[in-house]
Amino acid sequence: QVQLEESGGGLAQPGGSLRLSCAASGSSFSMYAMGWFRQGPGKEREFVAAISWGGSSTIYSDFVKGRFTISRDNAKNILYLRLDNLKPEDTAVYYCAASTRRYLPTNDDENDYWGQGTQVTVSS
Questions:
Q1: How many other C-beta atoms can be found within 10 angstroms of the C-beta atom of residue 104?
Q2: d(Cα 109, Cα 112) in Å, to the nearest integer?
Q3: What is the distance, to the nearest Å, from the Cα of residue 14 to the centroid of all Cα atoms in its chain?
Q4: What is the pLDDT along the chain (124 residues), one digit of tens a residue?
Q5: 114-119 contacts at long range (C-beta below 8 A, 24 or more positions apart)
Q6: For 85, which of 65, 66, 110, 124 is 20 to 30 Å away at the CA?
Q7: At residue 99, what are phi and psi to the nearest 5 degrees?
């Protein structure tokens, strides 16, 4: 199994940027497809982005496409999410997740391991 720990959240102004990191330990990081999800205040958790084992394939939700970038460094066992042009509606707890599925995980139940989350607040 793999343990995941997110970092990099915080307060950003509208139009600003943040970079989230998810450090993995335990099983081989490169075995897992990885994803980012988020849960805003009073909302259900939703898919943000996912990336394949080797990083060659990515997928994004429509509301972040063109603003967020998912990437991974398998040598360092770290998953990243670059958040640009942030909007107040991006305010949420952001979670990273690891999946043993042979496809990009876009639903909660397609992931096997979760981190504890990191808070992102977008406000002026």
A1: 18
A2: 8
A3: 19
A4: 899 999 999 999 999 999 999 999 987 888 999 999 999 999 999 999 999 999 999 999 999 989 999 999 999 999 999 999 999 999 999 999 999 988 899 999 999 999 999 999 999 9
A5: 114/4, 115/4, 115/5, 115/6, 115/22, 116/5, 116/6, 117/6, 117/39, 117/93, 118/6, 118/7, 118/8, 118/9, 118/20, 118/93, 118/94, 119/9, 119/10, 119/92, 119/93, 119/94
A6: 110
A7: -130, 140
The pair of three-digit structure tokens given for residue 72, joined into one six-digit string: 């991974």
